[in-house]
Amino acid sequence: MSPNVALIGLGNMGTPMSRRLVDAGSSVRGYDLVPEARERLRDGGGTPADTAPEAAREATAVILMLPNSDVVDAVADELLEAGAIGEGTLVVDMSSSEPARTRVLAERLADAGVAFADAPVSGGVRGAERGSLTIMLGARDADRERAHALLAPLGRVVDCGDVGAGHAIKALNNLLSATHLWATSEAIEAGRRFGLDPEVMLSVFNGSSGKSGSTENKWPNFILPETFDSGFGLRLMLKDMRIATNLAAQVGMPSRLGEDAVDLWAEAAEGLASDADHTRVAEWIAARASP
Ligand code: NAD
User: Fold this and answer.
1) pLDDT band at 290 (very low <50, low <70, confident <90, very high)
2) Is any ligand 1 atom within 6 A of the Cβ of residue 244?
3) In the list 6, 30, 149, 276, which could disulfide-bond 280, CB 3.0-4.6 Å?
4) Atom number of ligand 1 nearest to Cα 94
5) Domains observed in the chain
């Protein structure tokens, strides 16, 4: 029998993920605050619900793909209070959430007999569409196999450790990614002003030690063509960077470079539209440099 999956949060990532799950044979019921997002679910073969508890009530697994830990906690409370999840349900938080809060949430759910795993992703909207996400799984041993089976249609599942491990690795990855993007954008703007061709620079960086996801993907696909449509919001990136620098400080390894990067990205976030794509920082950096 095909698994019954509830997917709460049908935004840039949740929508293509719901389609992958439907295509893999799951019956998907979903909920999002935004009515258009619920309609997109119907177009992709899923069934929209009017509330999160209604989406979750019949499900054996509930996937959360929400903006942050505040929303994840609120939705989990709503599901528990409505009795929509209980003994036998597996809740998987695929949002990029705060690892310390994830562990608290997992305990709270365990008290109600609900199993929990964190499984944040990287690979962006394209990865979600293609089922090629990297999925960072944090789970108790007893829940690991079930989580692997559920998540396999979405990408490559990497076992990261116990509950919270996935969210910790995800935040640290994005701190690196954001730092790379800022540094790459400064280097390319400096080279451009010296008279270098950005495409030639990228070609050299990609064959050299300056290579990163920014030189291989973000610059050639979203920044050089000036589409700025990676589908990952700048404010979501800044949230992840703060999760990572807080984690680093808590364990006694404060990230000096990371904290500077947070300040720089926060400045850009103040100057750009609230829904700006994160790749817009490149434009921001070029515009703010002296003429
Ligand atoms: P998004 O803003 O496009 O989608 C989030 C969705 O959650 C929105 O549609 C919103 O209406 C919905 N929502 C908010 N509160 C809700 C509630 N109480 N109940 C139901 N729905 C609610 O964000 P996204 O880009 O899809 O990202 C989702 C998560 O995945 C974030 O944690 C983000 O950091 C992470 N992430 C995003 C990307 C990316 O490339 N976009 C990549 C990796 C990880």
Assistant:
1) confident
2) no
3) 276
4) 30
5) 4-162 (3.40.50.720), 168-288 (1.10.1040.10)
CA distances from 60 to 27, 28, 174, 189, 247 (A): 11, 11, 31, 51, 32
Ligand 1 center to 15 CA (angstroms): 10
CB 53 near ligand 1, within 6 Å: no
For the CA of 120, the closest atom of ligand 1 is: 44
Q: Is the pLDDT of residue 214 over 70?
A: yes
The pLDDT of residue 34 is: 98
Contact 56, 80 (CB under 8 A): no
64-113 confidence digits (pLDDT tens)? 999 999 999 999 999 999 999 999 999 999 999 999 999 999 999 999 99
In whole angstroms, give the CA distance from residue 128 to residue 16: 6
DSSP 8-state symbol, 10:
-
170 among known catalytic residues: yes
The answer, yes or no, to whether any atom of ligand 1 lies below 6 A from the CB of 231, is yes
**Is 50 exceeded by the pLDDT of residue 1?**
no
